[in-house]
Write the structure tokens for this entry.
Amino acid sequence: MSAGSGVVGRDVLPAGGGVVGRNGLSAGSGVVGRDGLSAGGGVVGRNGLSAGGGVVGRNGLSAGSGVVGRDSLSAGGGVVGKNGLSAGSGVVGNDGLSAGGGVVGRDALSTERGVVGRDGFSAVGGFAGRDGLSTERGVVGRDGFSAGGGVVGRNGLSA
């Protein structure tokens, strides 16, 4: 395939319309996303970012580097947490888990389902007790209250 304008990207593919993105890859159909990266296959996600390798997740967002998490959602900035879930907006908590919806609680832990309790702490697994407090480890006592630190006493009540 000849490159209409004689321009070839780092990938040695002809650049449609002579367009090459910031990443040095040629844009097959001359399409470049808001991020300045070329869109493989000319695909651009709902977020306006180019989809490297033409990959777009279930959420319609493009996967910057063609990375899609176990949940089939595209990983903004190509970031995938230790849990294998993609980080919608490239946010990962200091526990290494990806933060669904890009939400991180006051404790800097990621909230897998974007849920944060009344206390501002992230609720791992998206659980919140009857008291509205987040359950750091998803543990709720027999009394329906959240167990801070995941501790439940011998009586089955949350600590």
User: Anything to note?
Assistant: The radius of gyration is 21 Å. The chain has a mean pLDDT of 43. The CA atoms of residues 100 and 112 lie 5 Å apart.
